[in-house]
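[Meeting: bench + compute handoff]

Bench side (C.D.) handed over the final construct sequence. Compute side (W.E.) agreed to return the predicted structure before the next meeting so the bench team could plan truncations. Sequence as handed over:
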Amino acid sequence: MSRTTVVIRLAAAMVLFGASVAHAANIVADAYAWSENGGWINFAPTSGGGVTVGDSRISGYAWSENFGWIALAPLGAGVHNAAGLLSGFAWGENAGWINFAPPAGGVSIAPNGQFTGWAWGENIGWINFATQSPVITSWLAGDVIFADGFD
């Protein structure tokens, strides 16, 4: 089977079965959220984790000097992305569960890729994403490629 035939069959299968292309991008350097109880939370640590924004979820690890690693896609939970509106839960061994869509709060990704809003954790308290060194991703809601191939 020629290479061209394989590519054509793969493309046809993607169209027939409604496959979409996931477009993920990392968080830019110096990206911090702030918590009164937890201090600065680094979403782009230079060692260890790091956070990646995808079309339907957020994955990876953020670092808090006071609370340790925070998993954005823990087993059985995770932070979900619906065209820039975030929901679901992150988990840190010391921070506990962090809700990205709490009542009287919520986190979203602005059209320029900047995280805005507030998350809440019972142990860590309110987490503010509007800081002087904000969390910014190169993922943009308009980057989503829908199953039909049109934006």
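W.E. noted at the follow-up: Confidence is low (pLDDT under 50) at residues 3-25. C.D. will use this when planning the next construct.
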